[in-house]
Amino acid sequence: MNVSARSSRVRMVAGHSREKPALVIEINRTVSQLRKTMRRNREMFPPSLRNQLSNLVGHSARIHARNLRYVHPGMKKMAEWGECSERQARANFSMLKAAGVIVPHSYGNGGRRAARFKINPIALKVWLVRQGAKPHPTLLARLDRFLTPKNREFS
């Protein structure tokens, strides 16, 4: 293994190098592949939506890896992920919710109705195809693997 390929998978923790777990590497590849897929149709996927959705999928996959079901990042965090304003992040979130990609579960007592939600992998795949992203079959399989709960709630 050459040095550059290895250095991308090794991180320093308290002065010691440690390789990332294989699951984290696979999730990161999925996020990267999703971002590249959405980049094919730049008119339908503005940069803020691409970044916000891909980071949201990665975050959700990491949550599922811990056997938790719901994610609840705030709009400030999603705006950070999308590299946009909170208003634009809220608009992106509303569009994904209207398309059925994001399914709200419960509302908390946060400022603007802080919600716990999950990503519907079937709706996400259908939405990507309808928007003209042409997702590769390996991406579709990875989305199923990382986002589908064990009990198949969305089927």
Query: Fraction of residues in helices?
Result: 40-55%
The CATH topology is what? Arc Repressor Mutant, subunit A
Cα Rg: 16 Å
Overall, the morphology is: globular
Report the count of strand segments: 4
Structural class: alpha+beta
Question: Strand-residue fraction?
Answer: 5-15%
CATH superfamily: Winged helix-like DNA-binding domain superfamily/Winged helix DNA-binding domain
Task: Examine the secondary-structure arrangement and name the CATH architecture.
Answer: Orthogonal Bundle
Strand-and-helix sequence, N→C?
Answer: HEEHHHHEEHH
- For the record, the count of structural domains works out to 1
Mean pLDDT across the residues is 82
Structure description:
The protein is an alpha+beta fold and 155 residues long. Helices cover 54% and strands 12% of the residues. β3 (102-107) and β4 (115-119) form a beta hairpin. α2 runs antiparallel to α3 (47-65) and α4 (75-82) crosses α5. The chain is globular. The termini are far apart.
Based on the model shown, name its key terms:
155 residues, alpha+beta, Arc Repressor Mutant, subunit A, disordered N terminus, disordered C terminus
Short characterization:
With 155 residues, the protein is of the alpha+beta class. 54% of the residues lie in helices and 12% in strands.
Set down the secondary structure blueprint:
Blueprint: H1 3-7, E1 10-13, E2 16-19, H2 22-39, H3 47-65, H4 75-82, H5 86-98, E3 102-107, E4 115-119, H6 121-130, H7 137-147
Antiparallel strand pairs: 1-2, 3-4
Helix pairs in contact: 2-3, 2-7, 3-4, 4-5
